Amino acid sequence: MAWPNVFQRGSLLSQFSHHHVVVFLLTFFSYSLLHASRKTFSNVKVSISEQWTPSAFNTSVELPVEIWSSNHLFPSAEKATLFLGTLDTIFLFSYAVGLFISGIVGDRLNLRWVLSFGMCSSALVVFVFGALTEWLRFYNKWLYCCLWIVNGLLQSTGWPCVVAVMGNWFGKAGRGVVFGLWSACASVGNILGACLASSVLQYGYEYAFLVTASVQFAGGIVIFFGLLVSPEEIGLSGIEAEENFEEDSHRPLINGGENEDEYEPNYSIQDDSSVAQVKAISFYQACCLPGVIPYLVSLIRDKLGWMWVFYFFILMTSCTIVFISPLIVREIFSLVLRRQAHILRE
User: Fold this and answer.
1) Labelling 172: which of 109, 194, 240, 248 has CA 20 to 30 A away?
2) Residue 30 near residue 112 (C-beta atoms within 8 A)
3) Is the predicted pLDDT of residue 275 greater than 90, yes or no?
4) Torsion region of 71: left, alpha or beta (phi above 0 gives left; psi -120 to 50 gives alpha)
């Protein structure tokens, strides 16, 4: 039995050049760094909660009274944990809205600019949120909420841009294998964020944010100078041209009478330069066309409504598990310690 072409030895690798490898690695690690910064916040929640509560409710660290008075943002650790959960919710909603906006912006601007701007700007926001406010001893709940909303919008530039760039470079042949390997970037980013945060957490949670933000900012600079958005930028043929060529190569040389109209090319004696270029209308103008809004509402209600509800449920569930897992481990660990202390007293 013959294997499919994609599994034959050397058939898949022969289609790709070193430019494809560079694009694969850059997009892989760019989205991994974005996930690493999110994972850092989840890993340092316990340290943040201890820093934001007074010494009466935090006996694990002994600090002078005046320092605890300046750090007094919440009366108890439970209030601090609730606020950290609120920050997660704010981030997820702003991230969901930003995905839609980033997709539109990425179609109109250079994907390399949008991705680099999102990574560098998000790194600055993370630095201000976790490191700068702690160094200045400035604690404000509204500032934290505003910074995390902006961070969600900036983080949303990653996914649409990297997927669009990957789609420009990798065609249908072997796309399942390539994107199957590439989809591990989120898991690698979570592991990287956990390693970076744990390596410097003993010096303070602000250094975890500092290291993650620095690595992410450096990654944004590398993306700006090294990422190629499409093969056309270096003179290579695009994916659409290669796919059209493959379709032409598989067409029969002699067609039957019933298929002549199907394969007959549409030739024109007009010069390409003389054909008027039609300018695309804006999103607002498209919505103003008669019948567009009612059709969109009926489409979402009849066909896409439950799909989006299901996708949003899966997204919220997965992100919630990632964000609250450190708190669950902390509560389980404290419960075990209290149980052991109770057994020893008996």
Assistant:
1) 109
2) no
3) no
4) alpha
- pLDDT digits over 233-250, tens only? 777 766 555 555 445 444
Residue 69: which residues within 8 A CB-CB, separation 6 or more?
Answer: 54
Residue 21, CB-side half-sphere exposure with 13 Å CA sphere? 7
DSSP 259-299: GHHHH------S-GGGSPPPPPPPHHHHHHSTTHHHHHHHH
CB contact at 8 A, 126 and 151: yes
Residue 182: closest CA among 2, 11, 17, 20: 20
Tell me the whole-structure pTM to 2 decimals: 0.66
Higher pLDDT, 191 or 73: 191
The CA distance from 123 to 219, in Å, is 10
Is residue 35 within 8 Å of residue 193, measured between CB atoms? yes
pLDDT tens per residue across span 144-161:
999 999 999 999 998 889
